[in-house]
Structure formats: C-alpha cells, structure tokens
C-alpha cells in the first residue's frame, strides 16, 4: 500500500523530459525515438554504426579503425553522440545528473552483450584525482557500476589510475589527443595481480578518437591482462 501511495504521489517520469513513463529511470516514447541508439551493423572494433543490416563481424571496420591501430580486440557503443544522446551524456558528465547512470546500465548491457560473455572484469576509465575532486564523481565508474549490477559481472572500480593530468580534449585533433594521453593511465599497483590473466571490458561515457581507451588498454596489457574490449555509452561519429 505504501508503494502504491508513493507511485500515486510520485509517478515514474522520463529522465530527459519528465513525461510519465511506465517504469523508473526510463525514457518516454518521444525521447526514445529521438535518441540515436546504435542497432544493427556496426564496426567490430569501435561500435560505430555502418550502412546496412546484420550483426557485427570481425571483418567489418569503419574507416578510422582501418587506419588506426587499436590495441583492444573489440569495441561497442550504445548511442551516437548527438541530439538527445549528447544531452544525456553532458547532463551525466557535467550536470550532476548521476541518476542517469541507472538508466544507462541496461543500454550498455544490450550494446555490449557479446563482450560480456565468459565472465570478464569490468573496469571504468579513471579520472585524474584533481578532476575527480572538482567533479566529485567519475561518470565512467557510475556507468560501470550500473552495468555490473545489471549483468552480474565482476567489477573493479579502482583498477586504473590517471597518472597525468590532461586538459579537456574537446576540439583537439586525433594526434593531439593521443599525444596528451601517452602514458597517462596505469594500473593500481595493489591490484595488478587481479588484472593478470583476466579478460577486461573497459567502460567510458564517450569514445571520440579512442586515445583514452588506447591508454587504458595498454595499461591493462602491461599488467598482464589476457584480452581487452571497450564499451562506450556514446560514440562520436563524423558528420553526425
């Protein structure tokens, strides 16, 4: 009775527009339709959507992944970073909307379902401690925690450290991003033994050039990881 009363007073609302929804932490129909989820054919290495229909195939790569050496084996993303998806990510990242991570958990689980087989270890991309102090939370860690809760997969939130502070990378070229993130991430020395021999799924909010994921992947392999895949909530796509 108490739950019914609470539902009557505070009915579930869309996380983007506050329209009524059937469940908590969900999108209403119109917002769902305006959110560019990635379904169907995509690049097997970064998750960028590709023309046509079908399931991901190791031979299907986007233009970037055919020219840039990716240290990880597979990559996926839940959404294209534009329109409602961009607003969602920015609200989570800079708007203190930590509740949005709960909505994103099932979306990440759906996008990364083939990466999450065989009991991998979920690891979020870290923030540098100075930025973490300013922001008070790491959005990648929130997303990874919700993903682990939805899928029952092992998670290690503090496996990686951001050892080098970098300026915000918005507007930087691909080469500038890779140069800025060179040797910027390392494995927590106390947890190296727990990384060794494991399949790792790295989680972050946005993939742009892939430089951050590359730095985190190289740190995992340096600690003896057996395999690394990457999973982003949103993927920046050219001309999107």
The helical percent reads 25-40%
| Rg over CA atoms | 18 Å
Task: Report how far apart the termini are.
Answer: 48 Å
Strand content: 15-25%
Instruction: Tell me the strand order in the biggest sheet.
Output: 1-7-6-2-3
CATH overall fold name of the largest domain: Rossmann fold
Instruction: Supply the number of structural domains.
Output: 2
Number of strands: 7
What general outline do the C-alpha atoms trace? globular
* Structural class category: alpha/beta
Gist of the model:
By secondary structure, the protein is α/β, with parallel strands linked by helices. The chain folds into 2 domains: 1-34, no CATH class; 43-235, Rossmann fold.
Question: What would you note in describing this structure?
Answer:
The protein is α/β, with parallel strands linked by helices and 240 residues long. It has 2 domains: 1-34, no CATH class; 43-235, 3-Layer(aba) Sandwich (Rossmann fold). Helix content is 35%, strand content 15%. Strands 1-7-6-2-3 form a 5-stranded parallel beta sheet, sandwiched between helices. A two-stranded antiparallel sheet has the order 4-5. α5 (100-111) crosses α7. The protein is globular and about 50 Å long. The model has no long low-confidence stretch (mean pLDDT 90).
């Amino acid at each position: 009775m108490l739950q019914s009363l609470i539902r009557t007073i505070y009915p579930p609302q869309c996380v983007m527009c506050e329209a009524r929804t059937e469940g908590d932490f969900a999108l209403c129909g119109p917002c769902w339709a305006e959110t560019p989820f990635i379904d169907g054919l995509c690049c097997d290495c970064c998750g960028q959507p590709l023309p046509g229909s079908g399931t991901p195939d190791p031979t299907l790569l986007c233009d970037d992944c055919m020219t840039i050496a990716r240290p990880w084996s597979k990559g996926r993303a839940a959404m294209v970073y534009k329109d409602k998806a961009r607003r969602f990510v920015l609200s989570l990242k800079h708007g203190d909307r930590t509740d949005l991570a709960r909505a994103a958990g099932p979306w990440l689980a759906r996008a990364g379902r083939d990466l999450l087989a065989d009991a991998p270890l979920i690891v979020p991309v870290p923030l540098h401690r100075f930025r973490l102090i300013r922001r008070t939370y790491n959005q990648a860690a929130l997303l990874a925690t919700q993903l682990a809760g939805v899928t029952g997969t092992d998670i290690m939130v503090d496996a990686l450290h951001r050892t080098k502070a970098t300026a915000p990378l918005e507007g930087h070229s691909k080469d500038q991003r890779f140069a800025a993130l060179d040797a910027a991430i390392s494995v927590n020395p106390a947890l190296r033994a727990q990384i060794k021999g494991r399949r790792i799924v790295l989680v972050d909010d946005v993939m742009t050039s892939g430089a951050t994921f590359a730095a985190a992947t190289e740190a995992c392999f340096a600690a003896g990881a057996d395999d690394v895949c990457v999973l982003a909530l949103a993927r920046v796509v050219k001309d999107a």
